[in-house]
Amino acid sequence: HAKKMGRGNYQFFTSEMNTAARTRLALEKNLRSAIERNEFMLHYQPKVDIRTGAMVAVEALVRWNDPQKGLISPAEFIPLAEELGLIIPLGAWVLMTACQQNRQWQDAGLPPLRVAVNLSAVQFRQRHLVEFITQVLDDAGLDAASLELEVTESILMQDAEEAALILANLHAMGIHISIDDFGTGYSSLAYLKRFPLDTLKIDRSFVRDISSDPDDAAIVRSVVALAHSLRLKVLAEGVETEEQLAFLRALGCDEYQGYFWSKPVPAAELEAMLRTRAAHPALPAQSAADTA
Ligand code: C2E
Ligand code: MG
Ligand code: MG
Ligand code: MG
């Protein structure tokens, strides 16, 4: 009887495995054809100066627009795209599209801003990355100062020597370099000064409970002090409420991003936002909170 049950369990287990494997295989096949058919689109989320309320940059975030399933979040396909090497063509498309979009906004006479693109580890280590980015900027007719690249701590720590070299090249071109999700990885603080960086983006897990959790507030305060002493800017991710914003401002954060100001939106909506801003450039300075 035990044997029979064991076998039953085994069969159950393998059929589960098969389902998982089939699902994955289907996703892999769909992802490959999605890249061939170009079923992706970018949404853009503003990065805002915490004191003036001015939009300083926009982050490009990729979505898969599946004809059947609708918009699929990057969390569901970026890891697989990385594993399969598909992040190289997909990442190239993201970079080109973001740069061309920024060129179009500038051509339309909108206030100049940087467009930020997320780089995955596989992309960062690809050969000729610097040449490729140079080519993309050239093709788009965009200057390097209008581009920002977001990399994670783990990308930097994998091979710090090599990473420092790559970043030095990109930074020397005039590209703005940010560390994404800062505080969630294991970067050694001593290493930070070896990388040519411009901005630390504090992960949203520290922002969520900032008004109620003194530990989170202490962490943010420390990151701000560290960043400022290294002459870096600090951006807080995932700001959803006025209260969080007030705390971040009091702690000395320079910039923020989050649903409070805007979700990531399609290019046309971002453009409309920019036009409104261009028409009303004088936003009230947040002077009350500055004294907090
Ligand atoms: P990320 O670069 O840290 O981007 C921030 C994520 O937080 C985005 O999720 C954004 O929509 C979300 N977010 C922004 N504000 C808020 C907020 O106030 N509250 C909450 N709860 N969430 C907020 P999204 O677009 O789903 O992207 C997830 C991740 O996928 C990104 O994290 C990034 O690591 C990756 N990703 C997105 N696009 C690309 C890409 O083109 N290339 C690569 N390599 N990775 C990408
Ligand atoms: Mg990012
Ligand atoms: Mg982030
Ligand atoms: Mg994050």
Structure description:
With 292 residues, this protein is of the alpha/beta class. It is 52% helix and 19% strand. The chain contains 13 helices and ten strands. The chain has helices at 2-37, 74-83, 87-107, 121-124, 129-140, 153-158, 160-173, 189-192, 204-207, 214-229, 242-250, 267-279, 287-290; strands at residues 40-49, 55-66, 70-72, 114-118, 147-152, 176-182, 199-202, 233-236, 255-256, 265-266. Strands 1-2-4-5-6-7-8-9 form an eight-stranded mixed beta barrel, surrounded by four helices. Helix 8 (189-192) links the parallel strand 6 and strand 7 (199-202). It is globular and about 55 Å long. Residues 282-292 have low confidence and may be disordered. Residues 181, 203-204, 237 line the site of one magnesium ion. One magnesium ion is lined by residues 59, 118, 150, 180.
In whole angstroms, the N-to-C terminal distance is 73 Å
Q: Tell me which oligomeric state these chains represent.
A: single chain
Helix content: 40-55%
Largest sheet: 8 strands, mixed, barrel
Would you report the number of β strands? 10
Mean pLDDT: 90
Radius of gyration: 21 Å
Instruction: Give start-end ranges of low-pLDDT stretches.
Output: 282-292
Based on CA inertia axes, which overall geometry fits?
globular
Helix and strand content put the structural class at alpha/beta
**Beta fraction of the residues?**
15-25%
Query: Counting H and I runs of at least 4 residues, what is the number of helices?
Result: 13
Order of helices and strands: HEEEHHEHHEHHEHEHHEHEEHH
* Structure ligands: ligand C2E, magnesium ion
Taking strands numbered 1, 2, ... along the chain, how are they ordered across the largest sheet?
A: 1-2-4-5-6-7-8-9
Protein name: Bifunctional diguanylate cyclase/phosphodiesterase
